[in-house]
Specification:
Helices cover about 40% and strands about 10% of the residues. By secondary structure, it is α/β, with parallel strands linked by helices. It has a single domain, classed as Rossmann fold (3-Layer(aba) Sandwich), CATH 3.40.50. It is globular. It starts with a helix and ends in a 16-residue tail after the last strand. Bound molecules: 2-acetamido-2-deoxy-beta-D-glucopyranose (4 copies). The site of one 2-acetamido-2-deoxy-beta-D-glucopyranose has 2 residues, from loops. Belongs to the 'GDSL' lipolytic enzyme family.
């Protein structure tokens, strides 16, 4: 959108006044009645398992004591977010069994991309499809509520849609698919503006459905994963053992995402948009694993084979593989809580908790808003 100079000047004045008034008044912590999440495996609470292929034991072993649709041994960051607001864990929209949407819904599925996926995608539910499903969800849940009784107790109230927290964690698969599909890093970077444009379009669509509070994770340090280090053994590494080029691609995406959200904030003065640099929060674990009680930072806890206990061609966590005529269940390491990476791509509950504690303080947010103040456009202590 193009603004004239006067319009731009006017908007920055309004923006300034909003910031000023927010900074000088005493703010109450937010009281979100619901959480709606869009994303991929990092925030999936059962969509992939319900709709595509269910994750098998030992997924979920640490906390849920059974596979619970999370790509982890236990809770993921979205679970900690829900807990911090005293809300129930967010049910997956695609799960038809035992779900309760009274305080939110999760549209994320493992493997989801921002852009429409190519052939044989991990998940067909890319971001625009998640948005369409959500649009349908808003309409249909209200019809169901009107039926009353037990049906009503399973559905969110109409007013929750404007009052809820909207969380996002997506983009990792757009980059991974491109990199594993043999694109050069330059080609990957060249595709980033389109990916970010599509992301931002979806956020605007969701804003137009009434969303006002956004908590948006950027994408993590891909180059530190067992999967990338196994796939590209000769990649140049940084001093922490992470493959440089892939982390740079992630940072490039993050930079563009941050710029795009800054623009969004100027255009939509009644939206509170928090960009969360989860990349840096996660990277700090790989930079100083001992500080957080972690060992073997790049080695998958649950996996099979090679230097990183990971195999890109089979032997994924929870599967059964045949090794020299013997069936082996690809299982967990002894103490998942000592590890950062669960399956070589996703994090253990222990790592998720450390990352959650870091990001919820606001230290990784732009603007520097802690999680419990995410409904406000800006936040200054006292
Ligand atoms: C759904 O969850 C809400 C909030 O936790 C609860 O009050 C309601 O009874 C639940 N509905 C059912 C059918 O369990
Ligand atoms: C990428 O390159 C490798 C080695 O040249 C090849 O085996 C593989 O099929 C290629 N992958 C794709 C998706 O093109
Ligand atoms: C499988 O058998 C081959 C040939 O006997 C042997 O070289 C290899 O080490 C065996 N692999 C494992 C994992 O035991
Ligand atoms: C909000 O979060 C901050 C940072 O995590 C914390 O210091 C503060 O006590 C929280 N405030 C309330 C009212 O929970």
């Amino acid at each position: 959108m193009e603004f004239s100079m006067t319009a731009k000047f006017h908007i920055s004045c309004v923006y300034f006044l909003v910031l000023l008034s927010v900074a000088t008044s005493k703010l109450n912590p937010c009281d979100f009645p619901a959480i709606f999440n869009f994303g991929a495996s990092n925030s999936d609470t059962g969509g992939f398992s319900a709709a595509l292929r269910s994750l098998k034991s030992p997924f979920g072993e640490t906390y849920f004591h059974r596979p619970a649709g999370r790509f982890s041994d236990g809770r993921i960051i979205l679970d900690f977010i829900a807990e911090s607001y005293g809300l129930p864990y967010v049910s997956a929209y695609l799960d038809s069994l035992g779900t309760n949407f009274s305080h939110g819904a999760n549209l994320a599925t493992g493997g989801s991309t921002i852009l429409p996926p190519g052939q044989n995608p991990l998940s067909p539910f890319y971001l625009h499809l998640q948005y369409s499903q959500f649009m349908n969800f808003i309409l249909k849940t209200q019809y169901v509520r009107q039926r009353g009784g037990i049906f009503a107790t399973l559905m969110p109230q109409q007013e929750y849609f404007s009052k809820a927290l909207y969380t996002f964690d997506i983009g990792q698969n757009d980059l991974t698919t491109a990199i594993f599909g043999n694109m050069t890093i330059e080609q990957v970077k060249a595709s980033v503006p389109d990916i970010v444009k599509s992301f931002s379009k979806n956020v605007k669509n969701i804003y137009n459905l009434g969303a006002r509070s956004f908590w948006i994770h950027n994408t993590g340090p891909l180059g530190c994963f067992s999967s990338f280090l196994t796939k590209f053994p000769s990649a140049e590494k940084d001093e922490y053992g992470c493959a440089k080029a892939y982390n740079e691609a992630a940072q490039y995406f993050n930079q563009k995402l941050k710029e795009s959200l800054a623009q969004f904030r100027i255009e939509f003065l009644d939206a509170a948009i928090t960009y969360v640099d989860i990349y840096s929060a996660k990277l700090s674990l790989f930079q100083d694993p001992k500080k957080y009680g972690f060992e073997r930072p790049h080695v998958a806890c649950c996996g099979y084979g090679g230097e990183y206990n990971f195999n890109n061609n089979g032997g994924y966590c929870g599967t059964t593989i045949n090794v020299n005529g013997t069936n082996i269940l690809v299982g967990s390491c002894k103490n998942p809580s000592d590890r950062i990476l669960w399956d070589g791509i996703h994090y253990t509950e222990a790592a998720n908790k450390v990352v959650f504690d870091k990001i919820s303080s606001g230290a990784f947010s732009d603007p520097p808003v802690p999680l419990n103040m995410t409904c406000h456009r800006s936040f200054t202590k006292n």
